[in-house]
Write a structure and sequence with these properties.
Distance between the termini: 35 Å
Structural class: alpha/beta
Radius of gyration: 17 Å
Largest sheet: 9 strands, mixed
CATH superfamily: Acetylglutamate kinase-like
CATH architecture: 3-Layer(aba) Sandwich
CATH class: Alpha Beta
Shape: globular
Number of helices: 8
Helix content: 25-40%
Number of domains: 1
Oligomer: single chain
Number of strands: 11
Strand content: 15-25%
CATH topology: Carbamate kinase
Order of helices and strands: EHEHHEEHEHEEEEHHEHE
Length: about 240
């Protein structure tokens, strides 16, 4: 298939930790899931697009569970940050096995296994067509990995933030629970905030709105969705931006 000039030059891909889980409801890292995600990222990188990735840690640790058992919120969040770094290393290994040059940068310094997060260095890696995985969230408790993804996307001057899920877009209600759920092809930031659609937490969505950073929600488990979207196929997912 001939390459089609992509509509964006730099993207930040947000992947949930659950995407690496062995199966729904289970904990741990499934190497096959990591390889599947690596295949999608590799295909996107082949288009010549700069790619950064923020990955969650929900497959290894849920801070909410810790807090429900009396754990301090900050401590629970720090454990979650460490979980995201474990996932970042697993995804790095999968990408490298596909021949994709990858760097992991962490907001919490641990120089024996990853680079510290340095904005200009991360941008330089991307300019050299290296995929950069950002681990450790923002480096601060009380902030989600959604917010970390929005922050890194703005810092990297990305053209698009892609929220990769297991659903093909944003719906007015949970499509897994309600058969009459309606999918949105497009939303503006304000409507998404007012309707509390919960595809992304409000601080992350607000940060995107303030910086006019478009968000695309798509199903990463559709093997064609990511590349189609990056080639400019507007039928993929749900786009959230400033256009009303």
């Amino acid at each position: 298939m001939d390459k089609i000039a992509p509509k964006v030059k730099r993207v930040l891909l947000k992947v949930s930790g659950e995407a690496l889980a062995p199966e729904a409801g289970k904990t741990g890292i499934d190497p096959n899931s990591a390889l599947y995600i690596a295949d999608q990222v590799s295909a996107a990188a082949a288009l010549g697009i700069d790619i950064g990735i923020v990955i969650g840690g929900g497959n290894l640790w849920r801070g909410v569970a810790g807090m429900q058992n009396g754990m301090d919120r900050a401590t629970a969040d720090y454990i979650g940050m460490l979980a995201t770094i474990m996932n970042a290393l697993a995804l790095m290994d999968a990408l490298e096995s596909k021949g994709v040059t990858t760097r992991v940068q962490t907001s919490i310094e641990m120089p024996t296994i990853a680079e510290p997060y340095i904005r200009r260095r991360a941008i330089r890696h991307m300019e050299k067509k290296r995929v950069v995985i950002f681990g450790g969230g923002t480096g601060n408790p009380f902030f989600s990995t959604d917010t970390a993804a929005a922050l890194r996307a703005v810092e990297m001057d990305a053209d698009l933030l892609i929220k990769a899920t297991k659903v093909d877009g944003v719906y007015d209600k949970d499509p897994e629970k309600y058969s009459d759920a309606v999918k949105y092809d497009h939303l503006c930031y304000i409507d998404a905030l007012q309707q509390r659609l919960r595809f992304m937490d409000s601080p992350a969505l607000s940060l995107c709105m303030e910086n006019d950073l478009p968000i695309l929600v798509l199903n990463l488990w559709d093997p064609e969705a990511l590349v189609k979207a990056l080639k400019g196929d507007h039928s993929v997912g749900t786009l959230i931006d400033s256009v009303e």
